[in-house]
């Protein structure tokens, strides 16, 4: 054990002594890990709680379900409570019904005798359990597979188009000198200034005019010309030596071949980063799809799950569960592809 | 390359779109939002309609209420939208509704049963039949009877004032150690009934907005005081900016507050979510100096002018508005009916085993006779939303301690005036 | 497994390769006709076409909107009123008192956003820098920890807001902790100070991983021998940090600073879900103001919103020019 510890806590301090920076480092890292994952875990735990338990105060860390018992003479299982009786003794009883502030209870061992208990003197017997209905009900009731397919379609197409068009533009902006190059660059930069949420009405007019309303392409196209992607790729392509391109031109390669055969493969690390980001962004997109799509066969997952917010009531237990569902692909990306991102950003330099 | 992309795209669209629906049927799209189970009930009713009308394919698009409020207006402005929609913002968008008079089978039936409320959904002076109210709503209070009993506090009876109710709830709060005594939804609509009870009037002589009057200020200052004293649950009003709607139903359901002012539409919600946890009653609207008024309202199903199939739309509407179907819808959703025939025939067999439901519905029906004339005029008044928006925005700021009540009064008048002047530009 | 992955990869790229081959001959003709320079246009065209239609045109339209009035939503239902909306935004009786301004909420949003940006950017840069320095140390599991801090970056803003709302509300995780510590529970988001701190903290939580990586890349590019030399001279660590680390980190540091500034000014989704701008208007930031005025409020005014967004854009242009200036300087330094 101690050897493992020594191995894990290998540090920079000299001669086996713990330098204060080592301690600070580990506090920071372990605290950081808790802070980064803890909130998401709390969401997952909450998503398994029933509506009543979600509103409980103080909250419990884990989801609980009230225990029930089958009592002779009653068809349905009865909920169990710990009740404090008049003589001060504490017993586990099953509740038959509640009338006002009185609870009619019965001892499961001795079903013949009814006991009246004030509801303030009883507390439910609970065990850890999962309200899986939060997940099952919306998934069954909704056209879940359709939404999933739409989301996958949007994410895939948007990512492919983003990679292709952005890499072509980045190639032109990094490997050619032409008049207006800086102007184009500036123009693309300028769009960083205005976030989508403030130009919804004009953008909606454009999408409406192009006839893309209520189509998945209306969701895809406005998002693919991201300035971020062009930047990232251009920055990376600048590091590809021009001599490679010149050599290819000597061999009578066309410009298109140079782009396709030489530059694209060399830019693979940056492309991977952009691909991962694009997948995550498009999967997470919410506001814009919500505006473009109002017919249910076109809903993406994020839009479909938003129907649980009514005029007057929000069904939180469903919303939490469905949020967890939409997080699954993101977590998968994180688990399996984080290495590409973390090394890729370092390699590609700047977003 | 661009060309290739485009054809690739076209290919994908074609392949994707063709599977969605068959060509020979007329498609009628209904944009619908749900607060509870009414979406399921409606789907069931429409499925039955489709069986008898194989030529019409009715698609129910369940959306969030936000979509009805934010996206639908833009669609309508650009001459788009569904064929039928369930809408609450009826008067302001009246120009977009289709006049069904020439398409429905029997306009007289519509006039007789829904005529009273057509003015809520058509421009002043028009005789159009735009649709029908799927439900009537009336604002009113709910009390947690079990909490009152546990605290040993008598529930205020008929004719009790707002002060009585809050005082009693305060006792319950203190004895049961609850976070607050009561809550009222964050909405200008919700406080307008109580405002009326204190003598408020928003509508000027020329049907333009009147300046904020003392009646409104009386109830507003009570709300602010109650919030400052920790009697009103602060999360609901204080913790949002602008006109955002927030309901306090969850806090009532979880027995965090003994008294809750909302409306009749909550009955089904309370019944399903509270279950057997405690007993609750509807209390009607507490009284003020001028009366004990709630505010009527509701959602309507309206036909949209831009539909390409008015005939089929009318067929769907005729079916849904028929007495038999509407009765079933009402009984299953626990809504207050807006159909005169259904109301007069009475004997509604509300489908609920919950003993709290029937008395609550009765209470709302009897409370509906106590609304003041001003409150009854509000749903058909064009500027109601401008007024509601200003009330919510500014009163919240007062509660948060950002401005004084007097400053709020000036700002509300200014907000409303801005809205009026923008409309005339 | 690896073989399978390769086959799968080929199966996916194969149609693309075919397309790429098919477009080569016509492009060769084009290239012969226009020369190599003409190819730049071909490469730019698809991106610029999409960009033009879905970004540029809406931006221009937005500008036109800012000079119209009325309650109509589409342009043809609105009337031209010149600069009136800008005047309305900027008009105050007494510029030292927000409440006397015609659009007092706009000014509230502006001051809130400014305060937010100052605190958030400071916190963001500090936390990211410390984390990057720590991750740059020779520790076990560096790859793992590098990923840990990146996790929230992948979450959607809506989810981020929801997660934290579920922690900070009355029945939230934080109150579970305070109660267990024997303290009074608190409705955190109802308190002006805590709510503001929450928006700063949560947005930092959500994005710091990204900035950490940029800074880490900068740190790793600093030659080791510089540090070794310093160690031989027994230079104090703080001095090493000031004299070697900070100056050489310069370009990346500048990028982080300006990107964080731009995004700080544009903060919206996570705060909207988390606090809704409350309590009162104490976390009402500029983008939310614009979104509500232009789109979400029942008192919609697209013209006013457009004018506000143009003003915000103007401020951001200044910030971006800064960014360009910084990265130019950085490129110059790298060349040397």
Automatic annotation (TrEMBL), chain A:
<feature type="transmembrane region" description="Helical">
    <location>
        <begin position="258"/>
        <end position="281"/>
    </location>
</feature>
<dbReference type="GO" id="GO:0055085">
    <property type="term" value="P:transmembrane transport"/>
</dbReference>
<feature type="domain" description="ABC transmembrane type-1">
    <location>
        <begin position="148"/>
        <end position="337"/>
    </location>
</feature>
<feature type="transmembrane region" description="Helical">
    <location>
        <begin position="316"/>
        <end position="337"/>
    </location>
</feature>
<feature type="transmembrane region" description="Helical">
    <location>
        <begin position="183"/>
        <end position="204"/>
    </location>
</feature>
<keyword id="KW-1003">Cell membrane</keyword>
<keyword id="KW-0472">Membrane</keyword>
<dbReference type="GO" id="GO:0005886">
    <property type="term" value="C:plasma membrane"/>
</dbReference>
<dbReference type="InterPro" id="IPR000515">
    <property type="entry name" value="MetI-like"/>
</dbReference>
<dbReference type="InterPro" id="IPR035906">
    <property type="entry name" value="MetI-like_sf"/>
</dbReference>
<keyword id="KW-0813">Transport</keyword>
<feature type="transmembrane region" description="Helical">
    <location>
        <begin position="147"/>
        <end position="171"/>
    </location>
</feature>
<comment type="similarity">
    <text>Belongs to the binding-protein-dependent transport system permease family.</text>
</comment>
<feature type="transmembrane region" description="Helical">
    <location>
        <begin position="20"/>
        <end position="45"/>
    </location>
</feature>
<keyword id="KW-0812">Transmembrane</keyword>
UniProtKB/TrEMBL annotation, chain B:
<feature type="signal peptide">
    <location>
        <begin position="1"/>
        <end position="22"/>
    </location>
</feature>
<dbReference type="GO" id="GO:0042956">
    <property type="term" value="P:maltodextrin transmembrane transport"/>
</dbReference>
<dbReference type="GO" id="GO:1901982">
    <property type="term" value="F:maltose binding"/>
</dbReference>
<dbReference type="InterPro" id="IPR006059">
    <property type="entry name" value="SBP"/>
</dbReference>
<dbReference type="Pfam" id="PF01547">
    <property type="entry name" value="SBP_bac_1"/>
</dbReference>
<protein>
    <submittedName>
        <fullName>Carbohydrate ABC transporter substrate-binding protein</fullName>
    </submittedName>
</protein>
<keyword id="KW-0732">Signal</keyword>
<dbReference type="GO" id="GO:0015768">
    <property type="term" value="P:maltose transport"/>
</dbReference>
<keyword id="KW-0813">Transport</keyword>
<comment type="similarity">
    <text>Belongs to the bacterial solute-binding protein 1 family.</text>
</comment>
<dbReference type="GO" id="GO:0055052">
    <property type="term" value="C:ATP-binding cassette (ABC) transporter complex, substrate-binding subunit-containing"/>
</dbReference>
UniProtKB/TrEMBL annotation, chain C:
<dbReference type="InterPro" id="IPR051393">
    <property type="entry name" value="ABC_transporter_permease"/>
</dbReference>
<feature type="domain" description="ABC transmembrane type-1">
    <location>
        <begin position="110"/>
        <end position="323"/>
    </location>
</feature>
<dbReference type="InterPro" id="IPR035906">
    <property type="entry name" value="MetI-like_sf"/>
</dbReference>
<dbReference type="InterPro" id="IPR000515">
    <property type="entry name" value="MetI-like"/>
</dbReference>
<dbReference type="GO" id="GO:0055085">
    <property type="term" value="P:transmembrane transport"/>
</dbReference>
<protein>
    <submittedName>
        <fullName>Sugar ABC transporter permease</fullName>
    </submittedName>
</protein>
<keyword id="KW-0813">Transport</keyword>
<feature type="transmembrane region" description="Helical">
    <location>
        <begin position="304"/>
        <end position="326"/>
    </location>
</feature>
<dbReference type="Pfam" id="PF00528">
    <property type="entry name" value="BPD_transp_1"/>
</dbReference>
<feature type="transmembrane region" description="Helical">
    <location>
        <begin position="147"/>
        <end position="167"/>
    </location>
</feature>
<keyword id="KW-1003">Cell membrane</keyword>
<feature type="transmembrane region" description="Helical">
    <location>
        <begin position="240"/>
        <end position="262"/>
    </location>
</feature>
<keyword id="KW-0472">Membrane</keyword>
<feature type="transmembrane region" description="Helical">
    <location>
        <begin position="40"/>
        <end position="65"/>
    </location>
</feature>
<dbReference type="GO" id="GO:0005886">
    <property type="term" value="C:plasma membrane"/>
</dbReference>
